[in-house]
């Protein structure tokens, strides 16, 4: 007489634990990541003596020490910056426009751009600065 042994069923591995880990990693990186556009070149804003925190949202125009321009993290020229801002102002007239200029950028590079942006109808133009270190 031949006796058969019952085969043990192999329990499939569950991937629920892996999904949880991936979800926690996703949330972690969303919390620590920067949501603002970064400049394609170095920009070290000037120090502020007083001021308030910068509101979120809007458009960021970066101006490098040599006068290079970027709009929301993409290097471009002056005409493209003004065209991009104009298109966004048509959609949202109260759009915040942040000017993120290097601390050693000459004012002759910054002020004409701000004037041109205001001529487009922008009402909320802010200059990004670095808070002064605490004593």
Tell me what the structure shows.
There is one protein chain. The protein has 135 residues and is of the alpha/beta class. The protein is built from 3 helices and 7 strands, in the order H-E-E-E-E-H-E-H-E-E. The strands form 2 sheets. Strands 4-3-2-5-6 form a 5-stranded mixed beta sheet, with helices on one face. The longest helix has 17 residues. It is elongated, with a radius of gyration of 26 Å. The mean pLDDT is 81.
Question: Top keywords for this entry?
Answer:
single chain, 135 residues, alpha/beta, 5-stranded mixed beta sheet, two-stranded parallel sheet
Task: Work out the strand percent.
Answer: 15-25%
| Mean pLDDT over the full residue set | 81
What proportion of the residues is helical, as a percent range? 25-40%
Strand line-up in the sheet with most strands:
4-3-2-5-6
Runs in which pLDDT lies below 50 for 5 or more consecutive residues are none
Order of helices and strands: HEEEEHEHEE
Strand segment count: 7
- Describe the largest sheet: 5 strands, mixed
Overall structural class, as computed from helix and strand content, comes to alpha/beta
Tally the helices.
3
Measured distance between first and last alpha carbons = 92 Å
Shape: elongated
Radius of gyration: 26 Å
């Amino acid at each position: 007489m031949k006796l058969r042994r019952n085969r043990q069923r192999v329990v499939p591995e569950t991937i629920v634990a892996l999904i949880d880990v991936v979800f926690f990693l996703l949330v972690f990186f969303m919390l620590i990541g920067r949501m603002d556009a970064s400049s394609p070149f170095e920009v070290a804003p000037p120090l502020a003596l007083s001021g308030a925190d910068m509101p979120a949202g809007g458009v960021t125009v970066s101006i490098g020490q040599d006068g290079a321009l970027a709009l929301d993290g993409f290097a471009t020229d002056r005409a493209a910056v003004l065209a991009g801002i104009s298109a966004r102002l048509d959609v949202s007239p109260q759009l915040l426009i942040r000017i993120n200029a290097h601390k050693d950028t000459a004012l002759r590079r910054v002020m004409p751009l701000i004037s041109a942006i205001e001529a487009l109808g922008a009402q909320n133009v802010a200059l990004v600065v670095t808070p002064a270190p605490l004593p």
